[in-house]
Amino acid sequence: MKSAPAGRQHPFSTIAAALLTGAAVALDATAATPPIGYARLADTQVITDAVPVLARPLPLADVRLTGGPLKHAQELDAEYLLSLEPDRMLYYLRQRAGLPPKAAEGYGGWDGAGRQLTGHIAGHYLSAVSYMFAATGDSRFKQRADYLVAQLKEIQDKQGDGYLGALLAGDDRNRAELVDGKKRFEDLGRGLIQSGGFDLNGMWSPWYVEHKLFAGLRDAYRFTGNRTALEVEIKFAAWADGILARLTPDQIQKMLATEFGGMNEVMADLYADTGDPRWLKACDYFEHHAIVDPLAQQHDILAGRHANTQVPKLEGELKRYLYSGNQTSGDAAQYFWEEVVYHHSFATGGHGKDEYFGEPDQLSNRVDGRTDESCNVYNMLKMTRLLFALHPDDRFAEFEERALFNHVLGSMDPADGRTCYMVPVGRGVTHEYQDMQNDFTCCVGSGMESHALHGDGIYYESAGRLWVNLYAPSVATWKTENAKIEQQTDFPEGESAHFKISLDKRRTFTLALRRPAWAGAGFSVTINGRAVAQLPAPGAYVELKRRWKDGDTVALVLPKQLHAEPLPDNPRRVALLWGPLVLAGDLGPEGQSGAPESVPVFVAADKPLTDWLKPVASQPGCFRSAGVGRERDVDFMPFYRLQRRTYAAYWDLFTPEDWARQAAALAAERERRHKLELATVAFAQPGEMQPERNFNQQGEDSEPDRVLGHPGRRGRNWFSFDLPVETDHPMALVVTYCNDEWRPRSFEILVDGQRIAEQTVAKDGTTPHFFDAEYALPADVVQGKKKVTIRFQATHQNEIAAVFGLRIIRADAAR
Ligand SMILES: [Zn+2]
Predict the structure, then answer these.
(1) Angle 235-241-247 (CA atoms, 0-180°, nearest 5)?
(2) Helix or strand run (H / E) with residue 325
(3) How far is the CA of 186 from the centre of ligand 1 (A)?
(4) What is the pLDDT of residue 533?
């Protein structure tokens, strides 16, 4: 992303009167008008925010999408939500409570039985149908929300103590010994805490899962007005508080070492929805000092940390800041956002590799492989929209647009609505589409919420002012001014937007239209056909203050230019953009693996982009490199539209001199491979079914893998292949590994039971790449045999690195 502006500011007001008076507000206080949407209009607020909200998002219920890709994604999500069966996602929640399930079976994948995130889908789904009801007004979503809430109440009543949950605890490999997670929560309350990254007392991220149920109840209350949801949430929170209140501060911090989602956020929101300071105190239990304190001091301690463990945590800190004025929380949240956006994010708005942060501004060796989890971007966007509300500054809108029109739209296949886990940005990568009826991973859950919220964050208001942050076909009802704003636009491919304002009478207000940072020369605004003379520089708002009348129109021209966005640590490794749209290069069908080194590069480092990236006639957004691609030219289209293909989003640029050197190295590598082929007796491809059968693959606790598009096999115990040998030549084994192992791996290689090598494979700080290791086969092992068994054996509690190829060669062949 663009670099951060210098200086930071926090509008801070002293803790507001509502906090100081402290008294719990009875539930009835808000009975007349439950809030619809998180915008929390002033007349529905139970507390006064400690930090002023300067720009309130128009409530989701007051914004209707009317066309374009965001609307399409919303429709596909709506269809998906209606295809799911609430009784299946409630199956294990009922079973744990001793109630007979109402479906023949529960859902599987991560929502299935065992040591899973069981129950998380019910929570995500309740949030999603609540948003979708607000976003569309379709009563079927309200019915679904009401049904889920009624069911959760029945389950909670049966549990008897406020608990809701379906988690099991223990070692999933020994299912007979799995115990009800509720007991492990009770252990927690007694101070028994076994915690690690994703494990708390034998449960997989239990507070993370409970957070989804809390959030679902909150959203059913806020977005559909279901009061039972709030009552159930309060009892649920009381159960949680009963456990947490018994722990010492040290015990709490130990517990927080395990991922806990946004538990701080839901507790803060519950305080805002009830006015009961007990929940603000419960929010405080989830203040994770090891992360929050250094961030508040502006230390970027993110490297090596699981990214989506942190994003909801800091989003929760931002809520704590909003409601309580806690400055440490506010400082930490804002610093975190800026570090992630400006120092850890790729051009599409995503971040993280293999779900983890790396060092700030060290991104060029992290583009390949499994980058950019969808949950993270969803959570960053929620945080971004709230930050804009507190500081109405274009840079938040800029990031929102970037992430929404690249990663988020790209995370859904517009043909069938499948959503993705990773939407990588590397070279020779593919989307991780999910099986929408079976996988139920975290990203399936957050995806169902994400695409229901596309009406959120387009319009914000304050007294006498309406901001337009995103260009998307929509109709907004601005109740404060009794105005209707109709927006028509062909963005993102098109370059114009048109607004029509409907009013009951003439009214004076400011329409603040965003001039995006990418909208340079040619940007224009007209009111009723007359040009606006005074326009701000790109990256600011066009302030149109006037006495508006019914039927007034405003038109914008939003020209997009091509530009390259380099990574901070390598000016020659770039993403190519057209306005805010990242362009993805099409590398062929899915499954056609592209190792990064085989992806085309461009001999164009010394040329303006417009000289060599040419638009394809009558296909807006499509471009083709013109003669500079090596070994071939590439077709580009907007990242969000390129689906079901192998692709790249980052590219290496060369000067002709650099390329001549590189070409010589590539030619030498081709020659090496050619000689290797000539020397080869047999080659086995691990990770692919038929070749593995052909070479009698065996093993225990081992599995196929795919890295940088290449199939392989890895293991925690052992695996083996039988390969032919020739006795009239010395034989050697050549094994292909990748330096992109998550952790260092060391293991042994045995040939017919004889140990021939110990191998370590680890990251080496260079770009992820494959490499060959060669091992001589002792003559006495080979003698008199037609084939040998090559066995990879884990040692010292370590694991076997992924193996991407096994080759027996004649060691004496010319090479
Ligand atoms: Zn996820």
Answers:
(1) 160
(2) none
(3) 28
(4) 94
CA distances from 499 to 463, 489, 492, 508, 513 (A): 20, 9, 16, 17, 10
DSSP labels, 42-57: GGG-SS--SS--SSEE
What's the rounded Cα separation, in Å, for the pair 247 and 285?
9
Class of the CATH domain delimited by 461-492+495-557: mainly beta
Q: Other C-beta atoms within 10 Å of 54: how many? A: 15
Pick the CATH number of 679-813 from 3.30.70.2190, 2.60.120.260, 3.40.50.620, 3.40.50.300: 2.60.120.260
Domain boundaries, the chain: 1-23+290-456, 84-286, 461-492+495-557, 562-672, 679-813
Q: How far is the CA of 446 from the centre of ligand 1 (A)?
A: 7
* 123 CA distance to ligand 1 middle (Å): 14
pLDDT recorded at residue 38: 54
Residues, CB within 5 angstroms of ligand 1 (ion): 373, 375, 442-443
Instruction: State residue 441's pLDDT score.
Output: 98
Cβ proximity of 737 and 804 under 8 Å: yes
CA of residue 539 to ligand 1 center, whole Å: 31
What CA–CA distance (Å, rounded) separates 636 from 651?
A: 12
Q: What is the mean pLDDT of each run of 10 residues along the chain (815 residues)?
A: 40 29 35 46 70 92 97 98 98 98 98 95 98 97 98 98 96 78 96 91 96 97 94 98 97 97 97 94 98 98 96 97 96 98 98 94 92 98 96 97 98 98 95 97 98 97 96 97 98 97 98 97 97 97 98 98 97 98 95 74 96 96 97 96 97 96 88 92 92 93 84 94 94 94 92 95 86 95 94 92 96 87
Q: Nearest-5° angle of CA 260, CA 266, CA 269?
A: 155
- What three-state secondary structure class fits 179? strand
pTM score of the predicted model: 0.88
State the chain's maximal CA–CA distance in angstroms: 99
Ligand 1 centre distance from Cα of residue 61 (Å) = 27
Spacing of C-alpha 321 from chain mean position: 24
Q: At what angle do helices 120-136 and 139-159 cross, to 10 degrees?
A: 150
